Amino acid sequence: MAASPSGPRRSTVHDVARAAGVSRGTVSRVLNGGYVSEQAREAIHRAISEVGYVPNTAARNLVRQRTQAVGFIVHEPHSLFLEDPNIGGIMLGANTTLSQADYQMVCVVVDTARDTDRVARYLSGGFVDGAVIVSARHQDPISDVVERLRLPVAFVGHPPGISGAWVGIDNRGAAEAVVTRLRETGRRRIGMIAAALDRDSGSDRLAGFRAALGDAFDPALVEPVDLYAFADGAAGMTRLLERAPDLDGVFAASDAVAAGAMQALRAAGRRVPEDVGVVGFDDSAWATRTSPQLSTVHQPAEGLGAAAAAAVLAQLDGDQSVRTGILLDAPVVWRDSA
Amino acid sequence: MAASPSGPRRSTVHDVARAAGVSRGTVSRVLNGGYVSEQAREAIHRAISEVGYVPNTAARNLVRQRTQAVGFIVHEPHSLFLEDPNIGGIMLGANTTLSQADYQMVCVVVDTARDTDRVARYLSGGFVDGAVIVSARHQDPISDVVERLRLPVAFVGHPPGISGAWVGIDNRGAAEAVVTRLRETGRRRIGMIAAALDRDSGSDRLAGFRAALGDAFDPALVEPVDLYAFADGAAGMTRLLERAPDLDGVFAASDAVAAGAMQALRAAGRRVPEDVGVVGFDDSAWATRTSPQLSTVHQPAEGLGAAAAAAVLAQLDGDQSVRTGILLDAPVVWRDSA
DNA sequence: CGAGAATCTGTGAACGTGCACAGATTGCCA
DNA sequence: TGGCAATCTGTGCACGTTCACAGATTCTCG
């Protein structure tokens, strides 16, 4: 309501009480539980809809010493927020879970590393009762802040060095499943374009690749690149192809990388999937826009968000048994590129 | 802080007052303005950092009768939220503007059309002082709710039938700029694949095309298609090429349409940009994925979010002069396809 | 020097809610 | 019928802040 200058005053619990002919204590009990006669309950419900009563959040928060809000904190460069195909799904999942529990989701996007203390100040400002934190940083300083504040949080992803709850996918297992399937479909010389090896997601995917190949693993078939990006995929594929022209399968660390790789393969005259099978990771919008459509690993983005939110809510309910690490299933989606 | 059970009590304005040897009124004046001696001001600032004081939001909101929060409402199917390349930028822009003004952004994503009353209830619940609404619906019922509540809002996009502030881009002007530039680079027979003529964005882009050509405008060079989609672009380009084989430039109504058109041109043996120059619209992920990369019009997504947020803030400040419609510049990005 | 303005400070009252407590009513059983 | 428990209700206080008001001090100028 706020700034509606001459707007009608919002009705309070007093108005309801007067309309129902009871005291505000009884109204409060109808809303929050406690002994109240059936007769009074009915009269109050009638009065509530009559005067259009909506409880005042601020007053309730003040007396309850909680805000009924959970922060959704993205501590990453803005560019990641815009490009990461999963972040929307994570938000959506978290938001759904939180709003079902009558919590609000408050978004905080923090760009530079220096702004850490802005987040810290925010978290300690009492704006939120807890937080879902999306951050892939190693040794994220937010972790310390959170611990000091004893604020219920859950991380999405599992940057090493953090303590507290986190939710992620089994990157290693999913990568292993993908590569195993590639082998089963007859591929014999399988390479990998490995991105972001400084993050656990990147290194775990490489580990899965290696594990699936076992003795057949050949380090020369791994091409490391910086980012989960299209351009890196294209460049990496070109280099890999020079080194290993006899390649017949590629596991790309992300869909964007896979799309880049497919372009490079086409430029080199290879057909996908006839000559070379390509598999991506993420099951993002890229996957269905390429032709042929990508075989890939589905990131349960909404599930991640939902699970993280649920972990925060459980802590808020005083649940001591919250597991510190939760791994969600990331199923393989087999389409046409392999 | 909320549920930290044995956590130390948060310090209040009373603690600061005691530590500084003044009354809470003086502390409040330091925080909110008013007469206060330099000596007292210093002592209070020292005391604030000493006891680690952070104002309690709920108490402040209660007495001020405002929440210091603005809703970011996406009233669209979840799929749009996930796929629309602009929505992340809009969020980011809105968030930046709001947090600079010390407002929080509260995200609300509403999926089905039936949930309209959930949004209505939310908006009337006093959780937010205003709202940025992203919605392309015609006659969005939220519009009515907002009007009834007299809630300060701003729409991103300009669905017909809404009243109140909105922010969009100058589709007509941008299209005109693109086509003018095409002419300046020597193109003489320029066609357009015009999509979604039933929306204002589509018809405005066509109007800009027409205006840029002036007397040189030839209706036969306009090929109308249904959607801003790849397939429509390809089919439209094929038809247009049959009608006007001497074409040397194409303005496509979106990047996806442009990508389809480029495929059709290639299939017809035309080189881009040597034989035919192609320009798209949106500066979406398509633009940098095609080869050659698309010349296009950049959608200022962050700017749209920021402008919408600013419009809401202006209304909250009681600014009566808020324009109902704001058009943002959409700059032309010249890459390789023309 | 005194009146009035300007500057500074403390106190009380709200904001709307939840909760503890005490009081009132009823029901049950010895 | 008296006593005790169970059920129901009203009142006062607290949450932490802002704001209006009144009182206190200093400054300005006739």
Structure, described:
Two copies of one chain form a homodimer. Chain A is α/β, with parallel strands linked by helices. Chain A is built from 14 helices and twelve strands. Chain A has helices at 13-20, 24-32, 38-51, 57-64, 78-83, 87-100, 116-124, 141-149, 171-184, 200-213, 230-243, 255-267, 285-289, 301-316; strands spanning 69-75, 104-110, 130-134, 153-156, 165-169, 190-195, 222-225, 249-252, 277-279, 296-297, 325-328, 332-333. In chain A, the strands form three sheets. In chain A, strands 2-1-3-4-5-11 form a six-stranded parallel beta sheet, with helices on both faces. In chain A, helix 10 links the parallel strand 6 (190-195) and strand 7 (222-225). The longest helix of chain A has 16 residues, at 301-316. The structure holds a DNA duplex (30 and 30 nucleotides).
Indicate the radius of gyration of chain A in whole angstroms: 26 Å
- Count of β-strands of chain A: 12
How do the strands of the widest beta sheet of chain A line up side by side? 2-1-3-4-5-11
Question: What is the residue-mean pLDDT of chain A, rounded to a whole number?
Answer: 88
In helices, the fraction of residues of chain A equals 40-55%
Oligomer: homodimer
- In terms of DSSP E residues, the strand content of chain A is 15-25%
The major β-sheet of chain A equals: 6 strands, parallel
- Biggest chain-to-chain interface with counts: A-B, 54 and 54 residues
Number of helices of chain A: 14
Listing every helix as H and every strand as E from the N terminus to the C terminus, the arrangement of chain A reads HHHHEHHEHEHEEHEHEHEHEHEHEE
The N- and C-terminal alpha carbons of chain A lie at a distance of: 56 Å
Unreliable stretches of chain A (pLDDT < 50, length at least 5) are 1-6
Structural class of chain A: alpha/beta
